[in-house]
Amino acid sequence: MAGTSTTVDLGDLRARRGADVRGQIFLVLLVASVILAFAMVGAVFYDVTLDAWDIISQRFWDFLRMPSSSDPTKAGVAQGIRGSLLIALIVVATFPIGIAGAIYLEEYADDTWSTRLIQVTVRNLAGVPSIVYGLLGLAVFVQSLRGLTGGSSVIAAGLTLAVLVLPVVVITSAEAVRAVPPSLREGAYGLGATQWEVIRTQVVPAALPGILTGTVLAVARALGEAAPLLVIGAAGFYTTGNLDFLEQTQGAFTALPMNIANFARLPAETWRGHAAAASVVLLVLVFIVNLVAIIARARISKKLGR
Amino acid sequence: MQMTEPTTRIETNATVRERDPVAPDPSSEVFAVRDLNVYYGDLRAVADVNLDVYERQITAFIGPSGCGKSTVLRCFNRMNDLIDIARVDGSVRYRGIDLYDAAVDPVAVRRRIGMVFQKPNPFPKSIYDNVAYGPRVAGQKGNLDEVVEQSLRNAGLWDEVKDRLDDSALGMSGGQQQRLCIARAIAVNPDVLLMDEPCSALDPIATGRIEELMKEIQNDYTIVIVTHNMQQAARVSDRTAFFTAELDESTGQRRGRLVELDDTGTIFSNPSDERTEAYVTGRFG
Lengths: 306, 285
What we know:
Chain A is mainly α. Helices cover 73% and strands 0% of the residues of chain A. Chain A has 13 helices and no strands. By secondary structure, chain B is of the alpha/beta class. Chain B has a single domain, classed as P-loop containing nucleotide triphosphate hydrolases (Rossmann fold), CATH 3.40.50. Chain B has helices at 69-73, 106-112, 127-137, 145-154, 158-161, 174-186, 204-217, 230-236, 264-269, 274-280, and strands spanning 29-40, 43-54, 58-62, 86-94, 97-98, 113-116, 192-196, 222-226, 239-247, 254-263. In chain B, β9 and β10 (254-263) form a beta hairpin. Chain B starts with 28 loop residues before the first strand and ends in a 5-residue tail after the last helix. Classes of the chains: A mainly alpha, B alpha/beta.
C-alpha cells in the first residue's frame, strides 16, 4: 500500500438501519422468554397468596401452631412443618455421603469403564421418577429395615428422600470438585502436600460454594416431594395430638406437601384457603433454605477472596 | 570446558551475564539424568535425555514449544506422577538417589525440590497462609511468623506486603503473586527450586524483578529454569540446555530431544551444534 492512501467515506461507516434484523428478533425473543418465566412464577405466587389471604390475615400464627383438625377454623399445619423439618434434617445428615462419593469419583477413582458406568448410572438415577423411589423406600426402609425406622415413620420418609436427592448431590458436588483449577492442586502438590492434604485444604474449600448450591437444590426438592411420602404411608393428618419431637419419629407422620394434598381433597367450601396457606408456608420454608445458602455461599466466597 | 572469549562470530542480541566460568565438579551433581524417556500414553514426548545439573548453579532449559523441556523439569520432582498416562523410563538421580525408585515417596521429594509454575497460582487464602502452607503440611506447628517474614524477605516482597499479610493473595498483581509463589516455595527450605517459565505471564518490569531475585537466592539454592525467553536464559543462567522437537520418522510424531548442554556463554556464542546456533541467533524456533 506504499504511496497510496485509502479514502474512507462516512457513508461506509454509518450504521445501517435493519442490518441485524435477525439478531434483534432473537434478542426480543430472549427478553420475552425471561418475562414469561417470571410472569408465570409471579402468577402462581399471587394466586396462592390470594386464596390463602383469609387465613394469612386472620389466623396465620394459629395456622402454624395448630395440628390438623376436623374443624376448619382450628386446623393448622404444625404437624406438617415438624415432619418436613425432620425430613430435611435427615436429608442434610446424609449429604456427607454424597459429597464423599463425588470426591472419590473425581479425585481417587481411576478413569476405567467401571467408573464411567457409575457416573452414567448416577446421572440416570437423578432422572428416575420420585414415585419409584417411594416404592424403593417402602421395600427397604419401611419393611426390610423396620427395626431401624419403626416402619412407616418419618425416619423412613427422610431416608427415602435422602436416597432420592443423593444423585443430585453427587452430580453437583462432582462438578464443583472438577471445576477447581488444576493449578491449585499442582501448587499444593509442589509444596509437598499429600493427596489428602490437597483435597482437605484446597479442593474442598474451593469447591464448597458449588457443593452448597447443589445441596440446597436437593433440600428444596426433598421438601417439595409428596409422591414418595404417599407410597411410604404418610398421613394427610393424624390425631395422636401434639407429640414432642422425638416421639414424632415413630408412628404416624405427615409433611407439608401431604398437608396440601389433604386440604385440597376436602370438598367443603370452608377448606378452600387451607391448601393455599399451607403452600405459602412451604414456599417460605424453601425460600429460607435458599437464603441461608446464599448467605453461606457469599461468606465462603469472601473468605476465599473472590 | 573453558569459556571462550566473547566472539562476534554469532550475532545475538542476548547479553551473556558476566560470571566466572565454574568448572563442573562431578561431586556437586544435584541431578544426573540418564537415558530419560517420557511417554504420554503411546506418545514418546521426550527421547534419550542425558544431562547433569550442578549445585548452586542456575541451569536453563531453552527450546521451541513441544521440545519436552517442561516435561523433563517435571521429572525432577515427580510432578509427572499427577498425570495418569505419563510414564517415565530411564534414571533421574537426585544426589545419588534414583527418584523413581519404588521406595521413594514423591511427597518427600517435593518437600526438598520446590516448584514455581508458569502461571502464578497463589492459593485463595491470605498472603500469610500462602507462605505458611508448606511449613504447615510439613508438620511445623506453632508460630510461623518468622518463617513467613524471612521467606517474604528473601523473595523481595516483605516491604510491599508486611502491612497486609491477612489480605487475600488474589488481590496482588501478577508479578507480586509470582514472587509470593517463590516465597511459598522457599518457605519449606528446599534444596532445589524448579521454575517452569516463571515469567511468561509477567510484564518486563516484573520479569526483571524475578530475575534479580533468582540471582540473589542462587547462592542458597540450585535452580533449574525452563524459559521461552533466550535473553532470560543468557542473563541469569550459568549453564544452558537446548532442547528441540524432532520428527520421529517411524511414527510421524514429534518428540523432544536434548541437543546440547554447556556453559551459557558457550551456548550463546560458540555452540557446537548448528541447530543450537540457528535457534540462539533467531533463525529458527
